[in-house]
TrEMBL record:
Coiled-coil blocks: none
Gene3D superfamilies assigned to the protein according to its UniProt record, in alphabetical order: HUPs
Organism for this UniProt entry: Saccharopolyspora gloriosae
Cellular component GO terms held in the UniProt record: plasma membrane
Domain of life: Bacteria
Listed name of the protein: Uncharacterized SAM-binding protein YcdF (DUF218 family)
Domain DUF218 stretches: 40-141
InterPro entries, A to Z: Cell_Envelope_Assoc (IPR051599), DUF218 (IPR003848), Rossmann-like_a/b/a_fold (IPR014729)
Amino acid sequence: MAVPAESAADVRTLWDYHDLRQEPRRCDVGVGLGSHDLGVATRTAELYHQGWFPRIVFTGANAPTTVERFPRGEAVHFREHALELGVPEAAIEVETAATNTGENIEFTRALLAEQGLLHARIMLISRPYQQRRALATARKRWPEAEFRCAATAQSLEEHVESIGDADRVIAMLVGDTQRITRYAELGFAVAQPVPAEVHAAYLRLVDAGYTARLVRD
């Protein structure tokens, strides 16, 4: 299912805003953020094999959108996939309690602080459109660490094809755009600039009915 033509320009505007496209840097730990997208685990394994970090933490329990696909929990399934891709078992830890991005960061921070890595260099691996929100959350909730973001290098069209549900992808983009502002207001994340064209695209997509992932007041 492709992105509807009448919404394509606005969807691309949001996609380009959230996909930070940062160049990789060597880090102490790669943190794969749990979600419905197994591509996060694939990308984490690729970056490990390329030598960008020597160890991995997969973090995530379940959300309503993932429990059927990953019944044993997101982090557990991500770990199993990374092992299938040749990552050594000793290089992977799992954090299995987090149910949202804030908890992903906080619980991983606590896990690594116990190992003397509170001030670590961390590469956050997520879905392409989750990068901006993940970084804003991490800088608020783990200020001691240095962060870099990474995701599968793919176009909007490739991502929609990999997920198989354009409406779901659009709703997630709209929801993440709302959260950039809303979560900063609530103190969950650092503030991020939202260009006028991004805000306008977001409002048009809300008006078009892509509201399934909005935070309700």
